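Anyone have C-alpha cells for Alcohol acetyltransferase? Sequence:
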Amino acid sequence: MSIVYRKLNPSEMYWNAMGGAPLTLWARLNKTLDVDVLKKAIAATRRRHPYLNAAQSGENLVRSPLSEIPLEVRICKDNEDAIRREIDDLLHHEIEHFDVSDTFCRVLLLQPEPNAPSPSNLVVLGDHRVFDGKSALIWTQDILRHLNTLAEDPNATIEVDEMPMFDIFELVPDLKLPDLPPVEGYVTLAKPQDIDESKPVFVQDKVLKVDPELFRRFKAQCKAHDLTVNGPLTVAYAAAIADVANKKAGEVSTRTVNLSMAADLRGSTKSPVPADCINSIAGTFNLAVDIGPDSDLWELAADLASRTAKTIEAGEPWRTMIYTKTDPAKIAGLYAVSAVVSNIGHFPNQQGEIMATSVESHVMGRGEMNPLTGVHFLEAQGDLRVVLGFSPKFYSAETVDGVLNAMEARLNEMAV
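Reply: yep, here.
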C-alpha cells in the first residue's frame, strides 16, 4: 500500500496556552480503506505501542490504559485543501484542545464519497507534549504495515511483540527530575502582553527560501569543518535572534542566547527505552553558549558538536517530560526565546549512531510547553527552506522578517 507522509506546518496546528499541542501526521493511501480493517490494524498497533493506548490524569501524572483509541470517520474529497479543512475543523472546533486526560492519540479516517474511485486518507493526531514526529511516524508506519498484511489476507492474524506499559523510573532507577526545565537564558523579542489563556493562539508561517547556491556553499563549509548541517544552522538561527534582539534594544553589547540541546538517543543500543516510545524519553543535557555580533559561529558549532558527543559518550541521564512537571515561564519569563534542539548531528560510537533528523527552536509561553513561535529547517534535494511559525498576536511581521533576514545574512557570513 503506497503512502505519502506529511507533517503539517506550524500554522496548520492548533496551540492553546492552557490545552495541548496537537501534532498531526497525514498518510495518503492508494486505495479505499475498510473501517473494520483499520480497527483491526489499530488494535494490533496498540498491543505493540502501549502509549497509543493511554491517558494521563492527576497531579502525579499517572498514566493508564484506555479501552480503545478514539477513531473518527468522515467523508472528504481526496484533495489537499479539503483534507486540511477537515483537520482544521476537527482541531479548532471539536477537540478545542487536546486533553491528555482523555487520550494521548486520535485517529481520523477520511473516506471518499460512495462509489468514488478516490483513496482514503489516514491522519494520526497526538499531543506533542507526549510524543514527537518520530514516534508518530513509527506508529503510523506500524498501522500501515498491518493494513498491508490484511490487504493480502483479510483473515490474517497479526502477530506482534506485545509490550506492557512501563514506568521510566523503573527502567532507569537512578533517574531524577531536575528542579527546573532546561531553559538557561532567554532574549525577549516581544513585549509581554496580558492574554486570555483560555483562548487559542493561532500561528502563521513565514518562509525563507535559501538561495540554492548559498546553501551549496554553506554545506561545503559544513563538510570542511567536519560538521553536519543541523548544528551550524541552529547556531546561525540563534545568532540571528541575538542580532535582532540587539538591534531592537539599541544595544551594541553582546546579547546572550542560551541553547538547551536535547540529543535523541532512541534507537541506540545504549538506550533502555524502545525507539517507538514517547517524546518524554530522550537523553538530554544543557549546553549553554553565548552568541554575540562578533562570535565565530563555526567555532561555536564545532564546540557544541564536541560537547554533545562527549556528553552522549558519558551516558547522561534520561528525562521524563520535564515540561509537564514544571512551568518554563517561571524561569524564562513570558514569550522568551530559547531553543530545544533535537538530533544536532551524527556521532558514531560503539553504541550506535545518533542520527541528525530535525531541529526545532521554540518560544516558551505560559502554562504548558507552548511554542508560540518555532523554526523548522526543511531540506529536500538541495533546497533549504527556513519556516518560522509565529503568532501575530505576539510578534509583528517586521520582527519575524528581521529574524529571517538576519539568518540569511549569517548564512552568507558562514558560507564564505
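The longest strand covers residues 383-390.
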